[in-house]
Design goal:
This protein is an alpha+beta fold. Helix content is 33%, strand content 22%. The strands form five sheets. Strands 3, 4, 5, 7, 8, 9, 17, 18 and 19 form a nine-stranded mixed β-sheet that branches. Strands 10, 12, 13, 15 and 16 form a five-stranded antiparallel β-sheet that branches. Helix 1 (20-31) crosses helix 3, helix 8 (262-279) packs antiparallel against helix 9 and helix 10 (356-368) packs across helix 12. The longest helix is centred in the last third of the chain and has 22 residues, at 316-337. The chain is elongated, with a radius of gyration of 24 Å. The structure holds zinc ion. Zinc ion binds next to helix 3.
């Protein structure tokens, strides 16, 4: 029996809410590490940044990690750092167990010109879940783990979603550590330099379930008047590098019919892929994001070109069809213009369907909390798609104003950030079977 004077005023479980001001303050504090202005230039310490630049395993990433791990320690979480730098912090279950936790989290690395929210929102909202349960003395039948994964963005080391892929057993840790950036630096050495090459083995323990909160990074929720997205799955991704070899030659003396113009083929390929995606009855998207011409001079026919192709679709059969059409057109270009064209696969992930039960839970929870919710497929890749290999998984999206992301102009209304974090709180509470401590 208890002395009633020791019991704080008890909030009914359904009325629990995260501390929105603390969430936003943490987002702002994390954004200062590697802070940049709207043009992507570093800002001095003390100046409020527009966004952040924390490429994976850089000094800035190390500072960001230190801040978040400090918060995890403040919350009493049991920290685990694995051999590719994935960090988890676990709040034990009521019986003290740390096995088969409900896991939530995301990533805190950014692209070179990143915003404040991206993966940070999912990690810091997860900390809010823990803090809220602690403050209201809620115990859970299952442990809860907060995690952030190494090199989600793939902006410095490839493939992207590397840490979660290793965690889920899809890539050997040694291969991930050997990945090199453009300067020839290996991920493993760079993690050592910032103090985050841990000793816990990867792949990591499979959780009971995984839920990731993330901004949509697209315009759909805002356009449709929804605040929360119950994410049904993630598009398949196909990245290919195209190298075209023709013949560099004089721009004035070479007749049009005698040219082997690698630049023209690159341009035609970009137009072909745009048409292909626009004409597709599925939601195919296609992007040529990098183009380099050699020698890249005004009066020389390009002898060589290098470009990248990014194809995505939620429907794998449609994605495969797009890849086949792309390759057939490359062969046609090679024959028409007398070129040699080499294709190298950079990344290929199949589309992922999330777990129907967890999707339904997200949808019901948002509705119960009064937040307009809609089902949505993710256009971007996320750590959750890797965890979906080993545990029932879904994601919670919230709005991205104007659909802008991977840019310092990335912005989400504070009330939407809080609504999504509250949804996460109640989804985790239900999955972990939480209740007030019976002291
Ligand atoms: Zn992200």
């Amino acid at each position: 029996m208890t002395d009633t004077a020791d019991i704080p005023l008890t909030v009914a479980l359904e009325d629990l809410r995260i501390d929105g001001l603390r969430l936003i303050e943490r987002l702002e504090n994390l954004a200062r590490l590697g802070g940049i202005d709207l043009q992507g230039r570093p800002v001095p310490d003390g100046v409020v940044p527009a966004g952040s630049s924390r490429l994976a395993a850089t000094q800035a990433d190390g500072r960001g990690r230190d801040l978040v791990v400090g918060w995890m320690r403040d919350l009493g979480l049991q920290i685990r750092i694995d051999e590719v730098g994935n960090v988890t912090g676990t709040r034990p279950a009521a019986d003290g167990s740390t096995d088969h936790p409900v896991m939530t989290g995301s990533h805190i690395d950014t692209v070179a010109t990143g915003g404040k929210y991206d993966g940070n929102l999912g990690v810091l909202s997860a900390l809010e879940v823990i803090a809220t349960l602690d403050e209201h003395r809620i115990a859970t039948r299952r442990p809860i783990t907060v995690g952030f994964f190494t090199n989600e963005e793939g902006a410095r080391f490839q493939p992207d979603m590397m840490g979660s892929l290793v965690y889920a057993g899809g890539l050997p840790p040694s291969v991930a550590r050997a990945a090199k950036d453009l300067a020839g630096m290996a991920l493993g050495d760079e993690l050592t330099a910032i103090g985050y090459l841990g000793e816990a083995p990867a792949p990591g323990p499979a959780p009971h379930a995984f839920v990731e909160l993330h901004i949509e990074q697209g315009p759909v929720l805002e356009r449709d008047g929804a605040v929360v997205g119950a994410v049904t799955g993630v598009q398949g991704i196909s990245w290919t590098e195209v190298r075209i070899a023709g013949q560099g030659n004089h721009a004035g003396t070479t007749p049009m019919g005698s040219r082997r113009d690698a630049g023209l083929a690159a341009a035609r390929l970009a137009v072909f892929l745009d048409d292909l995606a626009r004409r597709s009855p599925s939601n195919q998207v296609a992007t040529v994001g990098q183009v380099e011409l050699f020698p890249n001079l005004v009066n020389v026919i390009p002898g060589r070109a290098r470009l990248t192709v990014d194809l995505r679709n939620i429907d794998n059969a449609a994605l495969i069809a797009a890849e086949q059409a792309f390759r057939a057109y490359v062969e046609e270009l090679a024959q028409t213009y007398g070129l040699e064209i080499a294709l190298a696969n950079l990344v290929r992930f199949d589309p992922v369907d999330f777990d129907a039960r967890v999707i339904g839970l997200v949808e019901r929870t948002a509705t119960r909390l009064g937040h307009p919710v809609t089902r949505i497929a993710s256009g971007a890749g996320h750590d959750a798609q890797m965890l979906a290999r080993v545990a029932p998984t879904a994601m919670i999206f919230t709005t991205s104003h104007g659909g802008i992301s991977h840019d310092p102009a990335e912005w989400t209304k504070p009330e939407d950030l809080v609504a999504a974090a509250d949804t996460l709180l109640h989804v985790v509470l239900e999955l972990s079977e939480g209740d007030h401590l019976a002291v």
